[in-house]
Amino acid sequence: MKCDACKEREATVHDNAISGGKIVERHLCEACAAKLGVAPSAEAGAAEAVSAMLSGMAGSGKTVASRCPGCGLAFATFKSGGLLGCAECYRAFEAQLAPMLERYHEGGDRHTGKVPRRAGPPSAPPTPTATTPAPPASPPPPARPRVGEREKQIAVLRGQLAAAITSEQYEKAARIRDELKALGDPNLQGPGAGGAGGGGRS
Amino acid sequence: MSQLPPSPFSQRVRDGAAWLSGAGPESDVVISSRVRLARNLCGLPFVNRATPDDLGEVAKRVRGRAEALGAKGLAGGERGAGEACDRLWVDVHTLSALDRQLLVERHLISKELSKGDTPRGLIVSLPDERLSVMVNEEDHLRIQAVLPGLCLDEAWKVADRADDELEAGLDFAFHERFGYLTACPTNVGLGLRMSVMLHLPGLRLTGDIEKARRAAKDMSLTVRGFYGEGSEALGDLYQISNQTTLGKPEDAIHRELAAEIIPQVIQFERAARARLLQKRRSSLEDGVYRALGVLRACRLLTPEEALSLLSMVRLGVLMGLVTGVSEQAVNQLIVLTQPSHLQRLIGEEMDQQRRREARADLVRERLRGV
What we know:
The complex is a heterodimer.
Chain A: E1 13-19, E2 22-28, H1 30-36, H2 42-54, H3 75-81, H4 87-92, H5 94-104, H6 149-166, H7 170-182
Antiparallel strand pairs in A: 1-2
Helix pairs in contact in A: 6-7
Chain B: H1 10-13, E1 30-39, H2 52-75, E2 89-91, H3 97-105, H4 111-114, E3 121-124, E4 131-135, E5 141-148, H5 152-167, E6 174-175, E7 179-180, E8 192-199, H6 201-205, H7 209-218, E9 221-224, E10 237-242, H8 250-279, H9 281-297, H10 303-318, H11 327-336, H12 339-346, H13 352-366
Antiparallel strand pairs in B: 1-5, 1-8, 2-3, 3-4, 4-5, 6-7, 8-10, 9-10
Helix pairs in contact in B: 2-5, 3-12, 8-9, 9-10, 10-11
């Protein structure tokens, strides 16, 4: 069997992913599998796919990864060890993790609270070069106002509010609305808006 | 027995630990308050998937940032800087087993961080030790603030500020939906654990401790022993902390613990103590005086027995049954009777039998009374 990706080399890696609630088989050569971050173990991939189907995690239309392209951690290894391998794991396994997290955190499915000052996509790490053996005594970074933090929190909370209303969790929705009011969400300003501050950090 | 070489913490041992000072609000029941934030650096695998080189890189970046800030910048800047900076960073993997254990006993590092020889570090604010950062534990950074008494708000401010200061020079892994990313998904979101250490001998003596434990679990709180995860409640010391970290802001968790749950536990414990005094005074006194008698007369003492007897003496002091012994003296013995503290205090490496003798000597001396 030829590789699905390059159509040239012999396929030796057989991977199962879930897409749209269906198992999608991929047959790849080792080089393409490595490029695509696919597990070189057919059994592991299939077992995870089936397990994900059984636990009702599939069907979102998103592809369910069996291995993190960032650090190579297999989802099965995470399930037995309980630890993720890198930040990328959260993206790779998002579909599987989301319901687990919601269960563990008692309905909490989205972050609310502090966000890093460095809002926006992570910048390239300031990697010291080999010619600077000691940690660089870098000058203190310029003070950055928390521009955008409030807006970011409001955006996150609005998402949560919508989700709570859709799932008919009205008490939760009321709590979120109060937090939005306290943050001064312009959408909620009007008669009765405001009230005791609650959105600030303790 | 061989003399111990000096260590960064030799000088600090004699006075015990600041979080055991007995100061702070509600200190009859609440020993200390702790706030921990878990953070990871962008672009490097989490500790469990990292190579020693990756871990070295994490340590280098965090150390660089901490040294650029200095102790003042990191820990709040309220104290004089004279003593502050020289011991800011500790390479934990280069310490002797005894000194690693000493840091565990002071609750500055976890048992997990104390084991292993890959690059791992500790940042600690001196002289008060109220801020510490474990580097390369389960997460790249574990920022912790510990204060005596019920002081979660102040502990939060200290940890939050250190987080801001570190983050201004380091990129922390953050996801728009899941928040701060941590190796264990049970910490994801806020990466926050707020916990209080409680002394609950009254609830144990009235037989209500299990009820309190179950009630706390029903409220999604985690109850642990003196040394955290998996440890027993030695000396009637318990830690109660939040379990969930996703979907609630920091102030909601703080409010639940500091304004709702902990005050209730404090009230239960005080009611249990009052009930004991009223209805079972002679057996309470018997327990307290027997404990004091043993501690003032014994010649060999294990750390477990010391903690359990000290718990009764502390209860006696707080209830006015024991005079001439201060609450602080009893509190500090909780940490000074631990194996590494004892050896550092005496300045000798000792085998178990010698430690038992030295522990009994120390306790007799400190509880001599009037």
